[in-house]
Amino acid sequence: GPPVSIVSAIGNAARSGVLMKGGEHLERAGKIDLVAFDKTGTLTKGESTVADVEGFGVVDDEVLSLAATAEKKSEHHLADAIVDTARERPTAATDGGATVAQADNTDASLQSISDPDDFDVVAGKGVIAHTDGHEVVVGNRALLDDRDIDVPSRIADYVREREERGETVVHVIRDGDIIGAIALRDELREAAPGVVAALQDAGIETVMLTGDNERTAAAVAEEVGIDDYRAELLPEDKQSTIEELQTDGHVVAMVGDGINDAPSLATADVGIAMGAAGTDTAIETADMALMADDLERIPYAVKLSKATRWNVL
Ligand code: ADP
Ligand code: MG
């Protein structure tokens, strides 16, 4: 049939939960043949929880509390999960010399986490902090490599095993020694596999982009059924990946939620932001926003982009 008019497209879209902002690049929208998805917060809920804490030569609790202090000033979703879990541990109270665990879950029993003396973010890798005269590093393999820290095989085995389940593992290092690891899980959004399948049925390629490590990315990609994935991307790498896909001849829609995603949302032929979970920067940069983070609207948004004669704008 004939292309629907811009005005009715925008109206229909809004009634269907997609906010369209228009924009001069959208004339390519009709030719979208690939949708790139950010992983964390887009295909997944972006609400990590601590699945396991493992001390190597120290008790698990010490690993968790040291990591929480180092992460206290970080706004990363992994940091939030670590700090929340450390706060919710049973309070260790002393009673006549014996340590007694109080398991009541009232707010008053929440542990206080000490502030670090200083704290630095290493983008896409982790954090470095000082507390109590110790340097504490919490981060991924790349951060350990940068600092020439060797990973004993027992720890590498633990990390591999958790990553193969789709979990993200951060190492905890005190004064240059690995004292433990924390495995975190971030559930898929329920709609994600169905949305990917619907796009594939419509002949559209799907790719997942993530800063997370290769093994975790592979496990999540398989769970969601996506065609391809690119892992261990720094924020600027996500944008250059979109450019490469375009150079290869693809017309690309990008779906993302984070500040990290703003450059790639801007570079994509059509940028689609998660409207509720999305950061302001992502929403401002995108061409469309999903009003209720409803991924199920994506195939519709792509179909609508294709049916709309954008060049009249
Ligand atoms: P994503 O949003 O996909 O998790 P990021 O670029 O934010 O991507 O992070 C990539 C990786 O860097 C994480 O999977 C983690 O290994 C590490 N990382 C980032 N921030 C932190 C942090 N605050 N603490 C520990 N590790 C971190
Ligand atoms: Mg994200």
TrEMBL record:
<comment type="similarity">
    <text>Belongs to the cation transport ATPase (P-type) (TC 3.A.3) family. Type IB subfamily.</text>
</comment>
<protein>
    <submittedName>
        <fullName>Cation-translocating P-type ATPase</fullName>
    </submittedName>
</protein>
